Amino acid sequence: MGFRRLRAAMLAAAVATLPIAAAPLPAAAQQRPLVWGDTLPATLDPHAIFDVPSQFVLLNVYDGLYRYQGNPPQLVPWLAESHTTSADGLTWDFTLREGIKFHDGSDMTAEDVVYSFRRLLAMNRAPAAAFSPVLRAENVTATGPRTVRFVLSSPYAPFLSAIPLVAIVNQRAIAPNVANNDWGAGWLAVNGAGSGAYRVDPATYQARVSLDLARFPQHFMGWSHTQRPIDTVRARPVMETSTRVLALLRGEIDATDSYLPTDQVERVDRNARTRVARDESMRVFIIRMNNRKPPFDNRDARLCFAHAFNYQGFNDVILRGLVVRNGGPNPNNLWGNPPDLVPYAFDLNLARQHCDRARAAGAPIGREIEIHVQNELEQTVQAAQMFQADLRRVGINLRIVPNTWAGITGATGQPQTTPDMWVHWVSTYFVDPENWVGQMYDSQFHGTWKASAWYSNAEVDTLLRRARASLDRAERERLYQAATRQVVADSPDIWVYNTLNLRGLARRVQGYSFSPVGSGGELRLMSLEN
């Protein structure tokens, strides 16, 4: 009852403080702005954070050397026009396009690329995890005004796949704003220094509350692909699901987040002014278990929880069959995933047996277990509530703790602060098994939200490290399949489904083009009908 009262209070607060409801948005000179109702990141600094909200900034305010486009996602040259790789996989040379401008009108050069990677590695925040094991700052060099060389310390097969993670920033804009050797992080958290299709209005920015973007007419890709590009974007997150959907139906926002609850799909589709974009994704829904905290340091305890989740009830009834059962950490449609993987079944009798074994071994199954949910995403709450009821049937007391993405991920740096359990999705940041099983279950990534199960298995570490070092695709596939099978046998987490991306859109939004990388948030591809 206390949790329901808290959610009701949060809903009332969301309605009372919703920026778009408080006052009408000013109209742009030629068209009404696009109002984007998705979640904003905690910071605008593209080198400081690594999550789905940050991809919106990365795709629109910044550019990378390569970018993913389309579905299935294809890696295409972006700021770079080409690259070459040495036979041993250690030396990578990239050639930049000519005539690229930053938002301040200055030219982008190879030195900006070098600076961007050195800044990323020096800050050593979330996006750096894909590069820091194999790349040292001094081994990123400009070999000419438009050429950049990367020399890796060891072969790293996912290197090119991960390149789109790195935004190229304007070092001349950042340099005057460096304070206490922070690489300008304080300034860039609330400003933009990119070359992307849209530029930030820092005067109106409030972290996680509002972000205004203006079209950059000089973007190197040009605007000939659309006759009505979007000139002004107002990103206004709406935290409570029902409020967000209502705002879309009323025309107060033009897009929801991409986690639209399935029980709202028909409602949005029935409205004459709105629609639901349904796109096959590579996003895995997962319930994490902190393997360093008893009882989850016991395999039988973890298997007890794995067999107590009603997968079919959640996927087919609550989510109305709009998802596909996922038996492990990788998307079903990703290479390197074992095709014969057998997922855990909902079986309360088997769950009780594993619980009994865990108790006999001294695991504190009887203590209250906390599961943290993202209160702005209804589906995480639904999963926890269903799980709570079924666990009660096997004698486990599960307490649901409302939280936010930023609050949960901010706690995952240490095992003692990481929740007992928490619910989230692992999205497509780059298309390689390294993005899923590689960074989730190799112990070298402990301290990141992706590795927040705190799972450790020396055999799995060896398999994953050999896989990322091999330049032989067939060998990598074999190694990833072996690692995935072992991870699933150890049951460090609960994997539920591979999802359809569901985003509510106003029908005046045209040209929406989904890619699993970025969840369809690339604004330059869209246009508006007023």
Automatic annotation (TrEMBL):
Official protein name in the record: ABC transporter substrate-binding protein
Major place of residence: periplasm
Pfam families assigned: SBP_bac_5
Sequence ranges assigned to domain Solute-binding protein family in this UniProt record: 74-443
Record bears the keyword Lipoprotein: no
The organism's place on the tree of life at top rank: Bacteria
Family under the similarity heading: Belongs to the bacterial solute-binding protein 5 family.
UniProt-listed SUPFAM superfamilies: Periplasmic binding protein-like II
InterPro entries associated with the record: Peptide/Ni-bd (IPR030678), SBP_5 (IPR039424), SBP_5_CS (IPR023765), SBP_5_dom (IPR000914)
Taxonomic lineage of the native organism: Bacteria, Pseudomonadati, Pseudomonadota, Alphaproteobacteria, Acetobacterales
Gene responsible for this protein: dppAch2
Coiled coil regions, renumbered to chain: none
Subcellular location: Periplasm
Keywords: Signal, Transport
Signal sequence, renumbered to the chain: 1-29
Gene3D superfamilies documented for this protein: Dipeptide-binding Protein, Domain 1, Dipeptide-binding Protein, Domain 3, Periplasmic binding protein-like II
Organism (species): Roseomonas fluvialis
Keyword Signal: yes
